[in-house]
Fold this sequence. Notes:
- With 176 residues, the chain is an alpha+beta fold.
- Helix content is 59%, strand content 18%.
- It has 2 domains: 7-104; 107-176, Head domain of nucleotide exchange factor GrpE (Nucleotide Exchange Factor Grpe, Chain A, domain 2), CATH 2.30.22.10.
Amino acid sequence: MSPEPPQPKAKRKDERIAELEVQLAEARTQADQLLTQLKYAKADLDNIQKQSQRRIEEANDRNNARILTQLTTLADELALIAKNTGDEGVGMIHMKLLKLLESEGVAPIEAVGKPFDPYRHEAILETETDTCPPGTVAEEIRKGYKYKDKVLRAAMVKVAKAPSKQEEKDYDREQA
């Protein structure tokens, strides 16, 4: 066997160029794959950061809601004291506390005259009345509060119902 005859330099250069082009194509493919992986990793990191921030905000809201719930109870007690004693100082403190709660995003739940909503109202009694349509709140026993559109404490209410037929029959008997 005889060694291969030397190839011309031009042919060796063309083969070398072809090899380098193949290597370049492989390097580009690998670079594209790595870039895609990097994009996915960056998207995952962004999602984790957003999720972590959302969890922190939710935890802060829960803690704020817990403290604000306690302050609403205090506000109700101050209102009761101011009403029963007529003490203007207590009334002023009560008003300041209400303004503080309002500045933190706490708002009272409107109840009287509104349709009964079990998510916002806690019915403790049904009362027969002609002054309110059935199924609406006739009287508020304890004020309810909401914080960022979530109920802190449901309003304790009396719900109106239509007068019973028995009362109408009794009334008719008395008239006869």
